[in-house]
Amino acid sequence: KTSQNTSISDHQSEACDLLLSVIDLINQTVGDAISDMLLVEMILAAQDWDVEQWNKAYTDLPNRQLKVKVKDRSVIQTTDAERKASSPVGLQSAIDESVAKYTHGRSFVRPSGTEDIVRVYAEADTQSAADKLANEVAVLVYKMAGGIGEKPKLH
């Protein structure tokens, strides 16, 4: 075990033990809400935070979700927990270029599990910017992943 490695500091060893405890606590297979809440309690205690302090650390950004109809949803492949498009080639770099234009911009795409659509998620510092980013990314998906029907646009 890394935590028993004598070449690391006591602090590093404690961190390893804590990480191992976290792995034992959470249920990655089913995402058990009770164990997730216990993990939150553990982190808050370790940080000496209460729920109010934790809430203040989070800022919800405006976002927009769109759907793009495609001929074949399997054209879209993702990595990094569905946050990066690995296929079609060039899509992720095009998304990254669009995202870079917006303050606090973030966007990702993923294929639906049940129908031939691609879901687009975008967020930015304002609702208008999130809407524009989502639309830009939806158009990229439409062009690069075999979009069908009407070209995406915000309603």
UniProtKB/TrEMBL annotation:
<dbReference type="GO" id="GO:0004610">
    <property type="term" value="F:phosphoacetylglucosamine mutase activity"/>
</dbReference>
<feature type="domain" description="Alpha-D-phosphohexomutase C-terminal">
    <location>
        <begin position="67"/>
        <end position="138"/>
    </location>
</feature>
<dbReference type="InterPro" id="IPR049022">
    <property type="entry name" value="AMG1_III"/>
</dbReference>
<dbReference type="GO" id="GO:0006048">
    <property type="term" value="P:UDP-N-acetylglucosamine biosynthetic process"/>
</dbReference>
<dbReference type="InterPro" id="IPR005843">
    <property type="entry name" value="A-D-PHexomutase_C"/>
</dbReference>
<dbReference type="Pfam" id="PF00408">
    <property type="entry name" value="PGM_PMM_IV"/>
</dbReference>
<dbReference type="Pfam" id="PF21404">
    <property type="entry name" value="AMG1_III"/>
</dbReference>
<protein>
    <recommendedName>
        <fullName>Phosphoacetylglucosamine mutase</fullName>
    </recommendedName>
</protein>
<feature type="domain" description="Phosphoacetylglucosamine mutase AMG1">
    <location>
        <begin position="6"/>
        <end position="49"/>
    </location>
</feature>
<dbReference type="InterPro" id="IPR036900">
    <property type="entry name" value="A-D-PHexomutase_C_sf"/>
</dbReference>
